[in-house]
Amino acid sequence: MQQNVLDTPVEYLKGVGPQRAAVLKKELQIFTYKDLINFYPYKYLDRTKYYKINELHAGLNAEVQLVGKIIKIKTVEQKRGSRLVAIFTDGLGEMELIWFQGHKWIKENLQLNTPYVIFGKINHFNGLFSMPHPEMETVEEHKKSLQSALQPVYPSTEKLHQKNISNRSITKMMQQVFLETHHLFKEVFPEKIIHELRLLPKNEAFFNVHFPKNTDLLNRSQFRLKFEELFFIQLQLLSKNLVRKQKIKGFAFQNVGLYFNTFYHDHLPFPLTNAQKRVLKEIRLDMAHEAQMNRLLQGDVGAGKTIVGFMSMLLALDNGFQACLMAPTEILANQHFTGIKELADKINVKVALLTGSTKTKERNQIHEELENGTIHILIGTHALLEDKVQFKNLGLSIIDEQHRFGVEQRSKMWKKNILPPHVLVMTATPIPRTLAMSLYGDLDVSVIDELPPGRKPIKTLHFFESKRLQVWHFIKEEIAKGRQIYIVYPLIQESEKLDYKNLMEGYDAIARDFPFPQYRVSVVHGQMPSKDKDAEMERFVKGETQIMIATTVIEVGVNVPNASVMIIESAERFGLSQLHQLRGRVGRGAEQSFCVLMTGNKLSADTKVRMDAMCRTNDGFEISEIDLKLRGPGDIMGTQQSGVLNLQIADLVKDQDILKLARTKAIELLKEDINLEKPEHQPLKYVFETLAKKNNIWNYIS
Which ranges carry the Helicase ATP-binding domain (predicted)? Predict the structure, then answer.
């Protein structure tokens, strides 16, 4: 019975009907009673305070509530249309109530000399206060409806306003839905968790989040509902990880053999940091077991993830398997190929590159050598996923920057052998811990949190446009020392023409101030053919040009140790993580490197925070935490696609402590009862299985 009532379509709720339901469905995705109850207020207003008109002042920015009567109604003609004006008095002063729409209906329903409670924002003009489109109810109605001193305010849209679905309308719908469904919410948590965390009963929590009797009850209700939401996300992710380790068998790499040892002892280009050694050990232990490895490797730009990836590949080779590395762009695939081939050649390991640009003849040869085992390591882009690409014995698949690949694409990698290969996901985008817990909670996580010795931290400086000559002088000094410079212009995805214009105007200015032949300049932008782009990149890598002017195509571009200065033009138009990624293009050599952020003179508060953070710290994880607070989880890493983060009440930024608690409790529960078989866990199991059915079919793919 309970589920049937909660699943009732919202149009059947008294006071809604088909027309309103259509708007609720389209604008707020509210289809059923349950959806309506899970539509939470975003703030609460104290409705215990009533202002007098003579207490109002021009600087009052809040919404106010007054009690009084309407003594006159008039229609005032304007240049376009007309407005309805009512004179409102509380005996101590007068003000205007104004409506620009819905005159006929409002005029018919307004009552003169009847006590009203009005609520809304005030305007002040020519010494007179006014309130446009006030919320109004008679004092009698107000006394009946005031169940709570804290009035909920729900998210709204322009379309809802146009259809006269106000905050008051939503509140009335909520009152009605609770009349019809109250006490139908079954408890899901066992008594032990309820007692330990002093959780409010579910019925009380739902009611008090919409109609809180006081602040304490509101806080406890929010905590209860946030904890439950985050708990089930963590339970799904952790359970998926444990079940996968039980069910999905992988290849056990027992040997640490000739390839690994020869490279480690004789050809390692630099000593590994302690963080690299720790991570390599975690990967080695993972791959030694029969359970398939699914590990996320996080490390800032330049932390040395690639060498760890390569040595993991050598473990696969030592056990008679092949390995592959998939990158999101040709530029990045080429960079990995160049770096890894240089290391592999020293120990007679054959590496091949497969991208969209690979010629048919070469492609056919790669297919043949992959199948007969001549090729040990294959590096490439999405081209690796094609059905024609068949390995003799694929044992390890490394995916670089996995958020750029869809789950369905990644699943194809699993089908490249009888058992799925071990998976190592690498990212240079530092992910805040809370986001990693919620996005990649089903993966084991390794972090390289230490830069190789000898690397000097990049100095980041912020200059306004007025200091451009000073910056140009600095560039000339660096070029005189034999260094190279990046100058990056923002990419506006909606307008390639505008990107091109910005970049070419910049190029003209630089060509004037850095004349040929004393200075040589490369240009790279999105409208260039790949061949020309690669040729320009190549000139810069070889040191034939000193300045590289580019859009963000070099964000994951080539590794040029001699490039010591990164100038970012219009830095205010870049996100914080993107600025940090761009900065990582320099600082690859032993010399001191610089990142210069150029902006206009007028900066928003958010932009100031971004610039200050960039100048203050080089720590990618600290940067990512600030970015999460500024932008929210939806914009970072494209998490909208994940599905797991469609949070209704919890907030990953504000509720980090609740998330950690939810994860801890989920771990404790699964340790005690991994299959949720105990009688007291049956309500949990029911909700868990319902959520699992809604999840996509790629349930066990990282």
Answer: 286-448
pLDDT of residue 646: 67
Give the pLDDT confidence of 636-648 residue by residue, as tens digits: 444 433 444 567 8
Task: Measure the CA–CA gap between 18 and 10, rounded to whole angstroms.
Answer: 9
- 696 Cα distance to chain centroid: 20
Omega of the bond leading into 529 within 30 degrees of 0 (cis): no
- The residue type of 319 is N
Do 585 and 563 form a contact (C-beta atoms < 8 A)?
Answer: yes
| Burial state string for 618-643 with b = 16 or more CB within 10 A and e = fewer than 16 | bebbebbbbbbebeebeebbebeebe
* Locus of tokens 């056919």: 364
Across the range 1-12, mean pLDDT stands at 79
Tens digit of each residue's pLDDT (9 = 90 or more) over 25-72: 999 999 999 999 999 998 888 777 888 998 888 777 778 889 999 999
Q: Give CA–CA dist 189/237, Å, rounded.
A: 18
Can you tell me the distance from the alpha carbon of 2 to that of 651, in angstroms, rounded to the nearest whole number?
A: 28
d(CA 359, CA 346): 27
Q: Are 682 and 391 in contact (CB under 8 A)?
A: no
| Closest-CA residue to 235 (of 442, 439, 436) | 442
Instruction: Check residue 303 and give its pLDDT.
Output: 80
* pTM tops 0.90: no
Looking at per-residue pLDDT, the higher value among 199 and 524 belongs to 199
Burial degree of 592 (CB within 10 A; 0-12, 13-18, 19+): middle
pLDDT digits (tens, 9 = 90+) for 205-244: 999 999 998 889 999 999 999 999 999 988 888 887 777 7
Check if the beta carbon of residue 72 is closer than 8 Å to that of residue 117.
no
Task: Please give the order of strands across the beta sheet that includes 135-138.
Answer: 123-125, 128-132, 94-99, 82-89, 63-77, 116-121, 135-138
Query: Chain centroid to CA 61: how far?
Result: 32
Backbone φ, ψ for residue 261 (5° rounding): -65, -40
Backbone angles phi, psi at 124, to 5 degrees: -130, 120
**Taking 70 as the threshold, does the pLDDT of residue 501 lie above it?**
no
